[in-house]
Design goal:
Layout (H helix, E strand, L loop, with lengths): L1 E10 L2 E11 L2 E6 L9 E9 L1 E6 L18 H13 L2 H17 L2 E8 L15 H13 L2 E8 L4 E3 L2 E3 L13 H8 L8 E7 L7 H11 L4 E5 L3 H11 L3 H7 L7 E5 L5 H9 L3 E4 L1 H6 L7 H6 L4 E3 L9 H16 L7 H8 L1 H6 L16 E4 L23 E6 L2 E5 L2 E2 L5 H13 L2
Parallel strand pairs: 1-4, 5-6, 6-7, 7-10, 10-11, 11-12, 12-13, 13-14
Antiparallel strand pairs: 1-2, 2-3, 4-15, 8-9, 15-16, 16-17, 17-18
Helix pairs in contact: 2-3, 2-14, 7-8, 11-12
Length: about 450
Amino acid sequence: MSSFWAEHVWLPSGLARGVRLVVDDGRFVVVEPRATRHPEDVKLRGVVFPGLANAHSHVFQRVLRGRTQSDADNGITWRAKMYDVAERLNPDLYLALARATFAEMALAGITVVGEYHYLHHGPGGSRYSDPNAMGAALARAAHEVGIRLTLLDTLYLQGGLTSEGHLPLDGVQQRFSDGSVEAWAARTARIEQTELLRRGAAIHSIRAVSREDAAYAAQLVGDRPLHMYVSEQPAENLACQMYYGTTPTELLADIGVLGSEFTAVHATHLTERDISLLADHECQVVVCPTSEQDMADGVPAVRRLLDAGVPVGIGTDQHAFIDPFVEMRELEMHERLGSGERGRISTPQLLRCGSVHGYQSLGWYDGGSIAPGLVADFITVDLESTRTAGSKAAEVIYTASAADVLTVVVGGRVIVENGQHAFGPVAPLMREALSLIRDAS
């Protein structure tokens, strides 16, 4: 059993003062506002927030940060470089990169990540002796770093969609594909859950999975978290309209994919009908503001989604940034630019987008808030840094950055203290992983 005391803590009811937290067996057992600090309590500096959720991640794309941002060809060069990275990786390199990337997330206050994992096999689609070797590398990395992972093992069967139908896989995409829904389901069934690992699923997109296969896959997934790219770009909507005669969301509703465990990723170009369908089926949405900006994909209608009752989480996607405070702020800033109004999304709503909505989307219904009985995942944010000095505790979400995270606790275990991960410096781990990957043939 361990206990903490903090002057400022974000609870489900809002910001509270003088809060005592008692943790036993990885869960909160006491959350007491206006409490006196006990002699054994660890005093936490700054503001305590619930752990933050990164609900959409591609670890291998971290290699591209700072190497594609100036390309002005609407993602053509980015896509070529992304495929080049995918060609180079093996389980050992993937482990090194995932370890460094997940540690970077931990430093930023992220306590759970959803990895949209489609880099399954060897070059040309050759199988490793362990068919889940690449996923196992991700799981091992998350365990070593100490953060929670929902492995969204992704079905990927087609090379694209045009008005004339689906395209065959190209060379690199062979690494992503199991060849059939049945083979994908059989492989993923072998993934064992642990205290920090939950097994989810993803259907990559209507571009990469046909209508029939998407329907079948959703049946096999059952009540596990199921994610899918939906209306990420206008071209996707157009191709779906021309070939299937409907929007992606309407198609998914027609074939029974939508439901309470379904999360639409990006959902940047939804119609009003699409939003209604997502709300009617109790779906969720995950948006990735910095990635959507970087790829010039557009601005999701977050306020309209929230008003319709659709929970919205956040993700870092390609990791152009790993900073959940930036992602949360951008939700409001995009709304301000589009509407000409401030205060479109309240601070408590932004925090729910960064925490509990993401936890729920990833199947961790016992996390994302600071309350008795929930998993003891929380972070502290410095109120005295160059960036946050002078900020009100209730508004620090607008001034803090990943660099201001002091403490990260997952399941009652401290994995970041005074801004340092238990590993020690993370930058050397990242530099070494990147160097190994760039030198690989």
